[in-house]
Amino acid sequence: MNFQSSTQAVDSVFIFIVAISVALLTGIVATMVYFVVRYSRERNPDPENIEGNLLLEIVWVVIPLIIVLAMFFYGWRGFRFMRTAPANALLVKAYASMWRWDFEYDNGRKTDRLIVPSGRPVKLVITSRDVLHSLFIPAFRVKEDAVPGMLTHLWFLPDGTGDYDLFCSEYCGTGHSEMITKVQVMTAEDFRKWRLEAPHEKTGEDVDGVPALLRKKGCLACHSIDGTRKIGPTFKGLFMSRVIVVTGGKEHEVTANEQYLRRSVMEPEADIVKGFPPVMPREKDNLTEEELSSIVGFIKGLRE
Amino acid sequence: MPEQPDFYTTTGNKSGLWSWIFSTDHKRIGVLYLFSLLVFFSIGAAFGLLMRLELIAPGKTIVEAATYNAFFTLHGVIMIFLFIIPGIPVSLGNFFLPLQIGAGDLAFPRINLLSWWLYMAGGLMALMSLFLGSGPPDTGWTFYAPYSIRTGTNVTMAVSAAFVLGFSSILTGLNFVTTIHRMRAPGMTWFRMPLFVWSLYATAWVQILATPILGITLLLVVTERLFGVGFFDPAKGGDPILYQHLFWIYSHPAVYIMVLPAMGVITEIIPVFSRRTIFGYKAIAFSSMAIASVGYFVWGHHMFTSGMSDTSRAVFSFLTFIVAIPSGVKVFNWVASLYKGSIRVDAPLLFSLSFIFLFSLGGLTGLIMGSLATNVHIHGTHFIVAHFHYVMFGGAGFAFIAGLHYWFPKMTGRMYSERRAKTGWAFLFTGFQLLYFPLFILGWQGMPRRYYDYLPDFHPLNAASTVGSWILAAGLIIIFFNLLRSIRNGGQAGPNPWGGTTLEWRTSSPPPAENFEVAPVVTEGPYAYHHKKDRIL
Amino acid sequence: MSRGQDTAGSRIGMWLFLFTEILLFGGLFMLYSVFRSKYAVEFHRAAEDLSRTAGTINTLVLLTSSLSMALAVAAIRRGKKNGSLIFQGLTILLGCVFLVIKYMEWSAKIGQGIYPDSPALLGLSHGEILFYGLYFVMTGLHGLHVVIGLWALIFMLASTLRGTISGARFVRLENSGLYWHFVDTVWVYLFPLFYLIT
Ligand code: HEA
Ligand code: HEA
Ligand code: CUA
Ligand SMILES: [Cu+2]
């Protein structure tokens, strides 16, 4: 039982249990069907009353017991392997919040996708800023919950290069299924370069004219910029439009001016736009004045 | 048999609807429960179909994310707390427990009626949570803190509904335990009780011992929401994982509340249709008790990736594997009970054999999840969804349908159409595989559960699953149509159409209000088919 | 088939019910032990601010009420309707005294600004927040049970007056008594856990 990676550990345990289960299931169903056919009322009009057999009863306790003990043991060994990260692992902190992932590297660099070098074990230390989430990378067969007020961990060994999906797999509210990002595996060489370039740059690059800030802060999980309706209102044409909001249970109409936009970002619970769930997190303590201005500025630019 | 008016015509001093909703006759309450269950099942099923429809393609198909989340929450709450947990005990159990032990009624008939009223109150509250307040609850049936405490939706109402339903369940449990201890007919020793009664006995203990923990947990969610006490809030020193422990201490044993009575139904049907006694009576009786008791100590297997300590994970995994043994014992004894029988595959047996297959498949995939290494990968994915539909619907659900067909002639005095029942089965069985098997693969490929939207890679299997849901729905509609129609139009069934040996077949169909004309005296075991008396052991 | 009164059956039913009640509180005791082991010092500090005098008096009140309840059942067994009525009345009275004292204790704390989620409480340490959370939830749930018990006893009093409870049929009174003893027992555990931590 020498495991090389979490992928291989999980797969081998899986195959072991599935193989035994398929054999058992086939055996049970085949016997059942055989009995039903062989002892049908036409073939066997006179049944025999067999009340039991102690020996058989013991056999089908003991043999399954041995089987399940083997399954337990194998699974537990794989699990132990998956819980003990090698000493040379690259340490990355993962922060979950509704509904985005943030990763922080030892040199302070922050990203919204997980960028790792190929061939070196990666250890993630995970926590949450609000409710429960779970960090799940199917390709590496790893998962661990992100729990507020607590640090959890997992490790895996990326090999080959390319992009892999990273999901949130603990239900966390309206945006749960949008809380997806990528694991980007680079060659060790590329990774070294990436890590050195602009180590304190916080926001990454702008894509298609959308400031990286919006993507990074997770705004785009809920707000579209092309008019489609997502969890929250779209940004397109929002500035200076008339909006019906609910404040303290009462509906009224406001104009989405600069002041309204600023307040909606910083204290979203104050006025809720009618027809949308009150789920936006307060950004009051998360945004600098500079960042806020740039977001509001961008929204203004999307006026029709 | 000299004609005595059956319990439908004996209305006492009440009439019409009143003679039902205020009746303390266990048979009337059983039928009342049966119809209430079917109504709630249909509502829950409608949510299931809508969910599948939404998932037929990635992106938005019919509803918004928030609505989808409300769908699976209500689907889960209704199916679990209003359909499958009360399910067999309150309907078939209520009707047949007293008949099978030769009693006139349950020990506390009025408490029995009270528990129906509580059930209805809880059910209406659950439905009201859809329309009242600030939107339907969106937490999933597990109500995990701290999300359930933060979300602005109508969680308090849904949680209170589950609390009331728990109370109803406790009352049924203590009624059954007392009845089995005190009301058995003369000569009905413990080991002459039908195995359905044994399974209800084990279930009733789980209901009594586990439900209060759910009660207090749900109350705490309400106090958290209303007063902000902070037990599950890390900002106040509380611990969200503690919530999960409390929740699963109830909700794992609850899965055995769902499946033990189902196993009991299967155990009744097999001897009757193979015309021989059950194989390993005592092994089956004791395995019910074993499942009920070991089932208390495995709750942690729902929390293998929750952040709980690694040692606890190992212990819970170990115990999870142990609890599979008594289930295996039952499966093997059922198959052995077919050996040298004289078998006729009528609808009840057909559903029972399907149960053995589907439950074994579901249970064996439970082992994959019980193993630590594999659980890490599949936890929180559609693999889990597939597992529990196999054991809950393929297991408990199929057994329920089997039991309905088996006891239908006793309850109504009529016979259903065998041909239609089998057509319904064919649709149901095919649809079932197409609906749920793809979810195993999707889960293994990594599609998380409770996902409103998914990546395009997952599209084909999701579409297949949705098509399966329609086939399955067609099957169910045929089955229920057949039964409902036969209540009026079916042929006369007579007191014992299957040649059963347990006590309920010794009275007329439907039974008279007092159950038996002459109080039965029991002199032998429940499945006494001794045409030949060669006994081994 | 006729069904007579099955006294033993009623007793089994009542015991099972009490068992579920014990488990209901059991969940809270579990929470208590987890948090207390995590925050031993803070629990100790917080407990010193509760009024031991009020707690002790209430313990005595409830224990006395249990005694008078037992006497009420004993009296009806011997057929002494009036004696039983007096003891039942006394039990109800003592139950009310308990509630009044509890009410005063709670108001005092709330007056100091100490109640769940209050600004004053949130200013304290985590352990103290949880201690008071448990204090209010557990004594609150217990108080609710006292109220339910009192209603049951008032109902019994009326039944005794009407004669539906008598020397021949008293299992309902006996069961209400059991319930009352259960409520007392829970208090006997709550008292040291909240007032006497050392
Ligand atoms: C009727 C309900 C029911 C039943 C009977 C079971 C039975 C079992 N369940 Fe399941 N389970 C659920 C309902 C049920 N479950 C639900 C609803 C959930 C999800 C809740 C949620 O998160 O929403 C769940 C989730 C769940 C998990 C958590 C997964 C996760 O979230 O990570 C696990 C993990 O161990 C598990 C395991 C098992 C096991 C080992 C059994 C065993 O008892 C099965 C035993 C049966 C067999 C093994 C088959 C028959 C035996 C043989 C053929 C003999 C030979 C076999 C041997 C080798 C022993 N279940
Ligand atoms: C007994 C329990 C039970 C049953 C029977 C079902 C039945 C169905 N369920 Fe399930 N399901 C759960 C219990 C159950 N479910 C639970 C607990 C969850 C977890 C929720 C959570 O995550 O919190 C879940 C989650 C769940 C999901 C996962 C959601 C997600 O994670 O994103 C899906 C998706 O496909 C699904 C689909 C279905 C479907 C299509 C059916 C179908 O089989 C339904 C088909 C039935 C019919 C179509 C009925 C037709 C018949 C009639 C209408 C009868 C007519 C009546 C008369 C004439 C009287 N369910
Ligand atoms: Cu975050 Cu789901
Ligand atoms: Cu479980």
Can you describe this structure in just a few lines?
With 304 residues, chain A is α+β, with helices and mostly antiparallel strands. Chain A has helices at 6-38, 54-83, 188-196, 212-216, 258-266, 289-301; strands at 90-97, 100-104, 110-111, 114-117, 122-128, 133-137, 142-146, 152-156, 162-168, 181-186, 242-247, 250-255, 272-273. Chain A folds into 3 domains: 6-82, Helix Hairpins (Orthogonal Bundle), CATH 1.10.287.90; 90-195, Sandwich (Immunoglobulin-like); 212-300, Orthogonal Bundle (Cytochrome Bc1 Complex, Chain D, domain 2).
How would you describe this structure to a colleague?
The complex is a heterotrimer of chains A (304), B (537) and C (198). Chain A has 304 residues and is α+β, with helices and mostly antiparallel strands. Chain A has three domains: 6-82, Helix Hairpins (Orthogonal Bundle), CATH 1.10.287; 90-195, Immunoglobulin-like (Sandwich); 212-300, Cytochrome Bc1 Complex, Chain D, domain 2. Chain A has helices at residues 6-38, 54-83, 188-196, 212-216, 258-266, 289-301, and strands spanning 90-97, 100-104, 110-111, 114-117, 122-128, 133-137, 142-146, 152-156, 162-168, 181-186, 242-247, 250-255, 272-273. In chain A, helix 1 (6-38) packs antiparallel against helix 2 and helix 5 (258-266) packs across helix 6. The model of chain A has no long low-confidence stretch (mean pLDDT 85). Chain B is an all-alpha fold. Chain B has a single domain (27-506), classed as Up-down Bundle (Cytochrome C Oxidase, Chain A). Chain B is built from 16 helices and two strands. Chain B has a two-stranded antiparallel ribbon. In chain B, helix 3 (65-84) packs antiparallel against helix 5 (109-131) and helix 14 (382-412) packs antiparallel against helix 15 (418-445). The two termini of chain B are 37 Å apart. Residues 531-537 of chain B have low confidence and may be disordered. Chain C has one domain (3-195): Four Helix Bundle (Hemerythrin (Met), subunit A), CATH 1.20.120. Helix content of chain C is 82%, strand content 0%. Chain C has helices at residues 7-38, 40-47, 52-77, 81-111, 119-122, 126-162, 171-195. In chain C, helix 1 (7-38) runs antiparallel to helix 6, helix 1 packs parallel to helix 7 (171-195) and helix 3 packs antiparallel against helix 4 (81-111). The longest helix of chain C is centred in the last third of the chain and has 37 residues, at 126-162. In chain C, 38% of the residues are buried. Classes of the chains: A alpha+beta (304), B mainly alpha (537), C mainly alpha (198). Chains A and B meet through helix 1, helix 2, strand 7 and strand 9 of A and helix 3, helix 9, helix 10, helix 11 and helix 12 of B. The structure holds heme-A (2 copies), dinuclear copper ion (CUA) and copper (II) ion. One heme-A binds next to helix 2, helix 3, helix 14 and helix 16 of chain B.
